[in-house]
Amino acid sequence: MYNTDSHVDQTVVKRRILLxxxxxxxxxFGNIIFFTVSPILAQLFQTVxxxxxxxxxxxxxxxQFESSYFKLFFWLFTAWSVFIIFNGLDLSYxxxxxxxxxxxTFWPLLIPFAAFLPKGGVVFRQMFNxxxxxxxxxxxxxxxxxxxxxxxxxIAEQEVWAFSTGCGFILLTWKYHSNFRRFIxxxxxxxxxLIMTVLARRNLMLTNIDFLLFSFFLYxxxxxxGSIFKKVSACIIVAVLVISAFFIFxxxxxxxxxxxxxxxxxxxxxxxFSYYFNGLKHHEWIGKGMNxxxxxxxxxxxxxxxxxxxxxxxECGYLQLxxxxxxxxxxxxxxxxxxxxxxxxxxxxxGLSKACGIIIFLWLVDMIPYGLPTxxxxxxxxxxxxxxxYSKTFRNLKEETIVASA
Length: 406
What we know:
The longest helix has 30 residues, at 317-346. A two-stranded antiparallel ribbon has the order 1-2. Helix 5 (121-145) runs antiparallel to helix 6 (153-172) and helix 8 runs antiparallel to helix 9. By secondary structure, it is mainly α. Mean pLDDT is 88; it is low at 1-8. The protein has 16 helices and 2 strands. The protein has one domain (15-404). 67% of the residues lie in helices and 3% in strands. It is globular.
């Protein structure tokens, strides 16, 4: 792939970018350790994760703006994030511990700086290598831990978030990979979709369906352009797979897929939303800060009754942004991400930029049913893609240039 950072020691960048993305993975992996092994060991993993995340981020980030629009709104977004941090800041021991070890509290406010990671070919190669090996690991862990899924479905959900997300990016950048790497990525995403369907995790079902669907669209309308044979072959293969999947689902919906069959149209959040909007009254514009909560009944397994507690999460990415930073946070977020996606998808000359544009738009869709800002590879990819899409230099690289140096 084309290298836009020839002045940088590529060996150093290669090592640092690998460790940086790996450090974000380790935080999510810590959640799996929490559910399966030990909370103490999980915090050890996560301590290593955020320390290396901070150190490597400091070494890697380069604040170079090719867009004055992006520069203006990113710094406005950053200034508002600082306000969110100090709005009701709590420095008690328990609060600081939550800031350090919660996926959703403090760290998502730093993830947007991933937009300033270097964008040379060595960076993409290292990311793709790691995503490929994580896909391999996901297939292994899915077999190894499948017996725990119905005991605690959170284990499966965390495995999908941690291990298979990068495989979606590999599928979206189909042209730049070997057949075997494509195969592993495809198998990982299909297994993730199957597991989430069996467990009726509708939000992650949507995520993985979108990866498959838009990878097909990008292949059909961009990567295979000029080849009628490739287009027709792809359509036939996909049609056969979709029809086969439909018949398998119909045959097994009373057994393996009975949970999703019964919950497909179930509304499990209407009551929660009522409590959320009631708790956000008079805070709609500026939010309730990093520690923002709302009163909501939650089922207690010990008492077998609903307990009224302060919740700091709402199962909708836009509402989560609003809880912490109000309408202002949501508007600033959209003013950055929507133009970035448009630039990457429609005003670029290479598949990498288009894939980054799709990553952004898929996240904007995911934020409707879930898509919570968090310290994760998926959210890091969104902001890295924002940086790529605002780089006119990268968007204007011709396909032949990237392929020749791949």
